[in-house]
């Protein structure tokens, strides 16, 4: 889901204006997690994100950063197979879209994710925490 604007389901204390959610589930199943509360269609997420990125670039507009995944872990184990978050990293690099990424996964230390994040970092386009 690509969201622009406030969500009625998220606390104002955890508010993000621009966010992109590659996954609508998380296989890590942390006991305290509320990710399952949300049911969303994410099939077209990559295409929609790229459309927005292209439009921003075409109009030479600078954007505030997108949060990469606010509801689930963006680099959960299935990312190894699906690579949805990797696609988002590549689109962000291609169109100079800044990202804020929160993760507790070690996948970001492995290639190809690591090298894409480093390329974003070299262009001051990523905050990883
Ligand atoms: S989204 Fe985060 S808290 Fe929820 S199950 Fe995945 S890793 Fe755990």
Main pleated-sheet profile: 5 strands, mixed
Low-confidence stretches: none
Question: Pairing-aware structural class of the strands and helices?
Answer: alpha/beta
Q: N-to-C terminal Cα separation, in Å?
A: 22 Å
Rg from Cα: 14 Å
> What is the helix/strand order?
EEHEHHEHE
Q: Globular, elongated, flat, extended or rod-shaped: what is the shape? A: globular
Strand content: 5-15%
Number of E-type strands: 5
Compute the number of structural domains: 1
How many H/I helical runs?
Answer: 4
Can you list the strand order of the major beta sheet? 1-2-3-4-5
| Fraction of residues in helix | 25-40%
Bound molecules: iron/sulfur cluster
Features:
alpha/beta, 31% helix, binds iron/sulfur cluster
Helix/strand layout:
Elements: E1 2-4, E2 18-20, H1 45-58, E3 66-68, H2 79-82, H3 84-95, E4 99-101, H4 113-122, E5 126-128
The structure holds iron/sulfur cluster (SF4).
Residues 26, 28-30, 33, 35, 72-73, 76 line the site of iron/sulfur cluster.
